[in-house]
From TrEMBL:
Phylogenetic classification of the source organism: Bacteria, Bacillati, Actinomycetota, Actinomycetes, Micrococcales
SUPFAM superfamilies in the cross-refs: Nucleotide-diphospho-sugar transferases
Organism: Microbacterium schleiferi
Record-annotated membrane-spanning stretches: none
CDD domains: GT_2_like_f
Domain MobA-like NTP transferase intervals: 5-168
Domain of life: Bacteria
Name listed for the protein in its UniProt record: Nucleotidyltransferase family protein
InterPro entries, alphabetized: MobA-like_NTP_Trfase, Nucleotide-diphossugar_trans
Amino acid sequence: MTACGIVLAAGAGTRYGQPKVFARDAVGTPWLVSVVAALRDGGCDEVLVVIGAEAVRAQRLVATVDGARPVVATDWDTGLSASVRAGLAAVAATDADLAVIAPVDVPGMPASVVARVLQAAVGPGSLARATYDGRPGHPVAIGREHWAPVSASVHGDSGANRYLSTHAAVAVECADLWDGADLDTR
């Protein structure tokens, strides 16, 4: 079974003050580097990075990240759903059985969380999501059989949360590994 990571990094980051694809931690490491590394080290064979806002500049950054390949969501400004659709369309062209999706604003996510979620995703019909003390979080693993229905179900700023809830995604408790925090503001 093969897994492909998808980093959602297309937005303008209005609450953050800049596109989060360019955000860096306190020592200057791009968040993107950390999230891509967690996905790869956690078991993803390849990582796609969905970009949109400032796409030319973002492509240059993605090109510097080992193991990452950019995917442009041309309609990124219509909301998060555009990024999800672009990522799932790109992964459909690979031989992956699973897509493991995480936003770029989870630079603290360890590879152990990705590995645990992947362990719960047993094939192309799987749906699994990390939870933190019972609260849904990232990453999520979506089997190939769900890619088209998930793409059809997302709209505007809504991601796959509703689909995962209504289709009984396996909840994978990860609070012992990380707090699940995403970073929306500086």
